[in-house]
Amino acid sequence: MPRRDPKSTRREPLTRERVLRAAVELADERGLGELSMRKLGQRLGVEAMSLYNHVANKDDLLDGIVEVALAEIELPPASVHWKEAIRQTAVSSYRAFLRHRWACSQLMRGTRVSPRQMQWMEDVLRTFRQAGFSADLTHHAYHALDSHITGFTLWQVNMPFETREELVDLAEGFLSELPADRFPYVVEHAYQHLEPSSPDGKTEFEFGLDLILDGLERLRDEE
């Protein structure tokens, strides 16, 4: 009978990266409110106290998982036109925040700017400045971009549905109680939510993003 290699039965060592990855998975599956040291320890097969060798406390854990989510965001590439660079990083941010529906809210609650967030800010600001935007217009451009990413994401993740099927059920119930003769345009708008995606493939997020970028380009050219 072949002897079992003792290395194969050893538990995977606990590291900060492994703890944070498990915490991200738990938050994605159950929501941030369900993330606790006890439940995280259970997922990893260790006692909760073992986690404190890798994270200082709950706040450190939350900061760490936000950093994991931010690491998935593509920074604006320097090799393309500024509008495409900003568009790419904005869409990447939006998609990362949708994958981790807790991340945007937690980022807003944070008490410090994470290294990854600081790098994103620097690269976005540099992209605008090197594209010929004045310091003043860059200031406004950054906040227009950041507020669109943050605001649209928070609006979407706090909707009372997550799937198209849930949206359809909600809309049908809403429409059944709405007097169409009194609110014809609301009814029209509600039905548009049930239509297939835009034929050009743009999401509502991208539609608003492109309006912002086109407007910023005009303002830059007028300076």
Could you describe the 3D structure shown?
The chain has two domains: 6-55, Arc Repressor Mutant, subunit A; 74-222, Orthogonal Bundle (Tetracycline Repressor, domain 2), CATH 1.10.357. The relative contact order is 0.09. The chain has ten helices and no strands. With 223 residues, the chain is an all-alpha fold. Helices cover 64% and strands 0% of the residues.
Mean pLDDT: 89
CATH class value of the largest domain: Mainly Alpha
Beta-strand fraction estimate = under 5%
Terminal CA distance reads: 81 Å
How many individual β-strands? 0
Q: CATH architecture of the largest domain, please?
A: Orthogonal Bundle
Number of helical stretches of at least 4 residues = 10
Q: Which segments are poorly predicted (pLDDT under 50) over 5 or more consecutive residues? A: none
Helical fraction: 55-70%
Strand count, sense and closure of the main sheet?
none
Structural class: mainly alpha
Give the gist of this structure:
The protein is mainly α.
What does the secondary structure layout of this molecule look like, with pairings?
Layout: H1 16-30, H2 37-44, H3 58-70, H4 82-99, H5 103-109, H6 115-130, H7 135-157, H8 164-176, H9 184-193, H10 204-222
Helix pairs in contact: 1-3, 3-5, 4-7, 4-10, 6-7, 7-10
